[in-house]
Amino acid sequence: MSVLMLPPQHFSYVSAPPCRARLTAIAETRYRVRCRSNRPLRHVALHEDKVQIERPLPLNGLGHMPVSFTSSKLAAPVRRVLCYGDSLTAGFCAQGRLFEPYGRTMAGELGRAGIPTEVLVCGHSGHTSAQMVANLDAYAVSDTGRQIGKGLRRSLSEAARQDLVVIMTGTNDLGQFFSFSAMLEDIAKLHQVCHLQGVPTVAVLPPPILSNPKVEANRRHFAELLQAWAKTVPNIQAVLDPSELVPATSSGSWDVDGVHFSPDGSRLLGQHLAAQVLPLLACVGSRNGNPTGTR
Predict the structure, then answer these.
(1) DSSP reduced 3-state for 164
(2) Apex 251 CA angle, 113 and 70, nearest 5
């Protein structure tokens, strides 16, 4: 289970369940969720038997990203992962009315696997890789999902030292028919920003684009190019293809627009990515000699 951290001015804390908020409560687990009413965020602690009230709701907004999700129980050593990208990282769905970042599920899955983890999520909806490069040091970048987030380098410099950065971008580049060489150059710059700070990366390919066969053909070709390039960069720990993790035929996993994941699809992606990232975090912590992931 994961925890959503948002700016403190929005919230207060109580020990009772939140009004009309639906969630899955598990023994000895603490949740932070936003009420549907205008009342502030509430803290929920359940200590007895397992209580089933439904899974956590998708979020109505992400605040000023990166937003933090943590495993329910944090104990040293804590691993730290930054998930960076576009609307697919933000978990954009239902035309931007809801957000279900895959990093939310990833944090919970890693915690259940015995790896206490803080996952930071920053996804710029509608942005290309070139825009992300142009905004590397920006404090407040607005996007088409009406959310605000920091640039990649700014996010890294202002957070505790990250053990790993997961970068998923390229969907909007493909949609605008950018050249493959320009796409690859911009994505390489994003990874290089992390590597120059001593943080290894994972490259996640753009997922299947169900709504446009021509763009999907381009996606497959670009995926081959990106995989070949990544093999030449030692600090890229893995290249992952969402089409293998959340197939285009996966029932209920895709939004009606055929581009974005549904909330269930984002959760499924987070589950699979957690399984892929789990051994990498162990290797990264050992190699860096930094078991706590702190500066």
Answers:
(1) strand
(2) 30
From the number of C-beta atoms within 10 Å of its C-beta (0-12, 13-18, 19+), residue 67 rates as buried
> Six-digit token pair at 256?
């009606």
Nearest to 121, CA basis, from 167, 76, 75, 157: 167
Task: Extract the tokens encoding 192.
Answer: 């290089």
Look-up: residue for tokens 């709504």?
211
* C-alpha span between 241 and 88 (Å, rounded): 13
Quote the CA–CA distance of 226 and 239 in Å, as a whole number. Answer: 8
Is the pTM of the predicted complex or chain greater than 0.90? no
Angle at which helix 213-230 crosses helix 180-196, to 10 degrees, equals 40
11: nearest Cα among 36, 26, 32: 32
How many Cβ atoms sit within 10 Å of the Cβ of residue 12?
10
How many other C-beta atoms lie within 10 A of the C-beta of residue 177? Answer: 9
For tokens 């404090």, name the residue: 139
- As a residue count, the chain comes to 295
**Residues 60/97, Cβ–Cβ less than 8 Å:** yes
The whole-number mean pLDDT for each consecutive block of 10 residues of the chain, a chain of 295 residues, reads 39 30 30 32 29 54 87 77 92 81 92 91 94 96 89 95 96 93 97 97 90 90 96 95 82 75 86 93 60 42
